[in-house]
Amino acid sequence: MDPCPLWVLLLKKFSIGKLSAIEVQELASAAVKSGLESQCVGKLPELGACGHSPGNCHRGLVRKYFRFLEAPDPWEVYGPLAVKKGGHRVEQVTAIHLLLPHHWVLQAEENNFLKSLCCKDEELVAFWKSQSSCPQMTAELKKVIETSQPSQLPVPYLLHGDAAPFTEVDSIQVLSFRCLLSSKAVTQSQMLIAAVPKAAMTKAGMPTEKYKGKRMRRGVLWSVSGDLEWFAAEFGFPYAAANLLCPYCNADQCKEDSPRPFTDFRQTAAWRASVLSPSKFKEKFGAHPLFRAPCVTPLSIRLDILHILDLGVAAYAHGSLLFSIMEKLPGAVRLTNLNKKIVEAYDKLGVAAQKRIKHLSLSDLAESAEEYPCLKHIKGAKIRYFAPVALELAKEYSMDKAGKHREALAKQLVKAYQVLECSWQEWRFETFKKAVDDFMAHYSWLAANALEEGLHLWSLVQKSHVLLHLAEQSKFMHPSLNWTYGSESFMGWIVQIASSCTSGTPAEKLPLKAGKLSPQPFLVLVALPKKEKLLCHGSSAQEKESELGEG
Predict the structure, then answer these.
(1) Across the strands, what pairs with 175?
(2) In three state form, how does the secondary structure of 469-489 look?
(3) Which residues of 416-449 are buried (b: 16+ CB within 10 A; e: fewer)?
(4) Are 60 and 47 in contact (CB under 8 A)?
(5) Which domain of life is it from (predicted)?
(6) CA angle, 380 as apex, 374 and 384 as ends, to 5°?
(7) How does strand 155-165 pair with strand 88-98?
(8) Rounded to whole angstroms, how far apart are CA atoms 493 and 486?
(9) DSSP 8-state code for residue 55
(10) Residues with Cβ < 8 Å from 465, sequence gap 6 or more?
(11) Do residues 483 and 305 lie in contact, with contact meaning Cβ atoms separated by under 8 Å?
(12) Strand, helix or coil at 173?
């Protein structure tokens, strides 16, 4: 029998810090008093002596529903952290807790859980075959692959890192990893390594310590993902405001006498002759401690479609396209008319309501006439789904030369997104690269034309240039294997958990609390509505079923 949806919702909200145990007890009690007949919800009001001892609600809820959860024991290392003493921040060598990747793998193997987290053997065979000519491949790894049975091939892993605010005065850096080829949802595949508040970090950064685990299934950290800002802070990539703004070549944004302008997207552009070779790239960014690990080099750093294209160049392209079309619409309510046009295009294409962008206001495009238009306050996935709609609008307003370039630009963007929808085994690199090159050629023409006419349209930024390197980087691997949609969602949950831990918890002790709570949101309850087995660590299926059978 399926569990009660309210019971599932209450425990989900509790597990990610949205509801306290006391609130779960109160809501369940109100539901029962209102006539809800559910055995599993009926047991929740009994928490904390039916609410008379609210301090015991949390303990009772965890013991009843979460006691079978097991994550790896946090590994204690020591490093310089910023702690508060007498109201002042001082640097002090302090214990910090990490969930080490090989501990996760060992825990999963011991519970026959690793295969469901990773992928099929035939997928591993196909993946390593596709990577045989990749510059990242080493002679040692190639030998291991050639001499291993499919069931013993190394598992490729993706490391994701990013930082986000979790209080009004602090941000948190989250590191997590997953199998590169996993088809599981992020709720069932992403594993936390560390969540460290910025307030606890010093110039020395994250503490590191070597540890030798027992024999386990071999794995390779094959990809490292994140946004450009995190790459700059962690690996020394240039920031967007740097004169030499590209980590992969010597393109610059010097305004006067620029020898290699990053805004030149021609095949004969001067910066193309300065693209770093794999060996030069490894030499330039190889100082980070992460690259001491076997087979991990700066070539493992992968540019991401979400940050570079969806929330970057595509957002600017759609913003400028909509703004330039809006300027041509008659009447004093041009924005209202533009929103009507967008709805008509959505209806014509039959796009589902949940995939549509919201009703646009001027602040969603540009705050002022001096600001370059960009689709803001919209999720990356919805910007992707907007590409065919942008093409429909561009076709309708393609009377002049600029309009024809807008239509051609929108057509190439749709083509690029269509290629991205294919599976990684059927990846068409040449088609994708040509679509990106053609897209940026039209984009640069529109940017130059707007500059001549004195219009703030078609902004060219660091991501506009780096997009070309992303296309080139995808020669050996489908970008979908590295994109960060799920990883960013996972990070959002960790931020929520960290926020719920802040009351009375010093910043340097928060990683331990976040580590203890992290298994709950992505290993508990997510599979229940689908009648799948509960994905959790450290207990038998019979114990889990008996624990949940009460519902």
Answers:
(1) 161, 194
(2) HHHHHCCCCCHHHCCCHHHHH
(3) bbebbeeebeebeeeebbbbbbbbbbbbbbbbee
(4) yes
(5) Eukaryota
(6) 90
(7) unpaired
(8) 11
(9) G
(10) 245, 246, 251, 262, 263
(11) yes
(12) strand
How far from 384 is each of 138, 176, 462, CA to CA, in Å? 36, 25, 20
Q: How many Å apart are CA 515 and CA 110, to the nearest integer?
A: 20
What pLDDT is attached to residue 300?
A: 95
Q: Which two tokens stand for residue 318?
A: 């759609």
Q: Return all residues near 51 (Cβ < 8 A) that are at least 6 apart.
A: 22, 25, 26, 29, 45, 57
Q: Which of 114-118, 389-393, 535-539 holds the top average pLDDT? A: 389-393
Q: Supply φ then ψ for residue 178, to 5 degrees.
A: -155, 165
Show the tokens assigned to 250: 């010597």
CA–CA dist 541, 122 (Å, integer):
27
User: Can you tell me the distance from the alpha carbon of 47 to that of 141, in angstroms, rounded to the nearest whole number?
Assistant: 54
- Count of residues for the chain? 551
Helices (H), 350-484: 380-385, 387-396, 401-420, 429-452, 462-473
515, two tokens: 């580590």
103, 193 Cβ separation under 8 angstroms: no
> Could you tell me which residues are beta bridge partners of residue 85?
88
Name the nearest CA neighbour of 297 among 309, 284, 308: 284
Q: What is the pTM of this model?
A: 0.80
Strand partners, 84: 89
**pLDDT per position as a tens digit, 162-202:** 877 766 556 777 888 889 998 887 767 788 777 666 555 55
The residues near 303 (Cβ < 8 Å, ≥ 6 apart) are 466, 469, 470, 473, 479, 482
Residue 149's alpha-carbon distances to 146, 152, 179, 245, 425, in angstroms, are 8, 5, 19, 44, 20
Rounded distance between C-alpha atoms, residue 551 and residue 545, angstroms: 10
Task: Tell which residue, 180, 125, 267, has the closest CA to residue 477.
Answer: 180
Q: Is 171 helix (H, G, I), strand (E, B) or coil?
A: strand
Q: What is residue 78's three-state secondary structure?
A: strand
SS3 category, 155:
strand
Find the helix or strand (DSSP H, E) in which 246 lies. Answer: none
Buried b (16+ CB within 10 A) or exposed e, 327-366: eeeeeeeebeebbebbeebbeeeebeeeebbeebeeebbb
d(CA 436, CA 380): 18
302-345 pLDDT tens trace: 999 999 999 999 999 999 999 999 988 876 688 999 999 999 99
Pull the structure tokens for residue 136: 């990242």
C-alpha span between 369 and 348 (Å, rounded): 31
